[in-house]
Write the structure tokens for this entry.
Amino acid sequence: MLGVLTADFDYSLPPDLIAQTPAKRRDQSRLLVMSRDAGALEHRSFVELSAYLRAGDVLVINDSRVIPARLRGTSRRTAGEFEVLLVEENGTNDWWAMLRPGKRATLQTQIEILDSHSNKSGIFATVTAINAEGHRRLQFTGTKNIGDDLKNVGETPLPPYIRRKPFQSSPEDIERYQTIYAQAKGSVAAPTAGLHFTEDLLARLRQSGVIVSPITLHVGLGTFAPVKVDALADQVMHEERFSISAGTADVINAAKREQRRVIAVGTTTVRVLESVGFDSDMITATSGRTRIFIYPPRRFQIVDALVTNFHLPCSTLLMLVSAFAAPGETRGRDMILAAYAEAIAQRYRFFSYGDAMLIL
């Protein structure tokens, strides 16, 4: 008995619906509103989100900041080209990274990093270890701290389905592939549900009595990793770093006690809240790492409503929203795929720069 299968979450998407650029204004993205109880769908604009939120709701956002994590360089020995995607910092000038082509990045390979004009920067990365996932540990030299120099040599790490030529990520990408409330540096992909918010929209929500509280989850490359197993029970989930403050924990706990709604902005926020509240309807201030894998049938302890984007076929994110559509049941997959079919018919834009959903 295989149980829930990866193939159950497949769907067909016309390539021209994969958004290559953001909406002209963040909050002018479209918003597909799903009522879980009624099974109804509404077509709205994201700027109308405030119509669905009420005083006392707690809107939880992920304040992680995307770093310019994509580097390009050449082999010091062969002059062969490499693309480097930083994954996680171990210490100053010591990082785990993904390299392409990986087979050429053997131990002790030295790569000279190029700057944004394709010129040699004088910064070198040496491969010092290779882990079971094929990631390379890099030691950087020629810089006091590569983290501080990323603004000169790094590119916005747009996902592979957003097509850009090398060194061609635009000033618009630098601004728009980042939430307006991003603070803590560390993500290599944006928490994209948050890309739709503007200062004006957040101000209106606060004025209406909505409480906006941050958590932090640094989004890793695993968010794009394909599920390679047939049965979801066999999937080993990627690990991501998170933290939740005492202030946010107190706000959420008060809401749960008073039966006010906790609304998560993005699947990353869900991962944090359901990791910390795994066996309780209360949470504590903490930091750590999570490998939580949420798929149907799954009950939710903390999150009552979800703002999210449209996700890739067979992705762990699509599985998470399917679980949320019908907590504790398996029919959420059918509900989400039906909503996606409606979104495709109505020409919604998909993935990171695309439109949004609100699941109530």
